[in-house]
Amino acid sequence: MKIGMFTSGYQRNPIEHCFADAKEYGYDFIELWGGRPHAFAPDLKNGDINLIKKLIDKFEMPVLGYTPEHNAYPYNYMIGPENQRKDAVEYLKICLDMAKEMGAQYMLTSPANGGYLAKYDELWPRLFETIRELGEHASKVGVKLVVEPLTPYESNFFTRANDLAYLFAEIDNPYVVGMCDVVPPFVQHESIMGYFDILGDKMDHMHIIDGDQGTDSHIVPGEGSIPLKELMYELKRINYDKTITLELVLGYLNEPRFYAKRAIDNFKKLL
């Protein structure tokens, strides 16, 4: 399995720190967060993609995944009128283009909160239409679209492995696949390993971090309550050989370099 660094927590540092640290600390790849000031897709399209390519070459550190910011302001394809949904889709098509340009294998999307008054018969058709459009573009550019369930603190309808299975029953596209961030199943008392049984070959990526009940916090591996040592045993048992990102997000903004190193050091001990 390949171990990736997620760069959201570095957003107050120069982007070069992400690549330098990933190389020095022993990560295999970067999952690049796409938000200002670092890798916002319209900025990449306007020329900043050249900086990303230079950093990839300088540090010999590939960007295998691109995770654009799109769960809140100003983009969330699950909420607002149709023109806002279309705007978010067009933005994410640019993101797919930029993912291709930087050599990424996948782009991640996560269906966020659709609003307190939205009903399932509004939310699901909206998601089907959006993922169908994005999936068609993903197949054109040759980048996988990885769909991620969120915690109930983040999304009011797309939170479980069965939600992915329901989506894939409607969207038959080899470029649209699923993943498991271990925090959502843990806080919902759902089986993490159940994702593999439910999704089969559609299970394509993981975010592995630690967590605690009652919160969506993403914690350095080994410092929360998730039985990660046992999880790693099970992943070895099924010969999981795809990508894993250690997804530290905003909880360590003050010292992202310290915690990026601690995260991979702790994780390797679990292996």
UniProtKB/TrEMBL annotation:
InterPro entries: IolE/XylAMocC-like (IPR050312), Xyl_isomerase-like_sf (IPR036237), Xyl_isomerase-like_TIM-brl (IPR013022)
Pfam families with a match to the protein in the record: AP_endonuc_2
Name the UniProt record assigns to this protein: Fructoselysine 3-epimerase
Organism lineage: Bacteria, Bacillati, Bacillota, Bacilli, Lactobacillales
Domain Xylose isomerase-like TIM barrel: 19-268
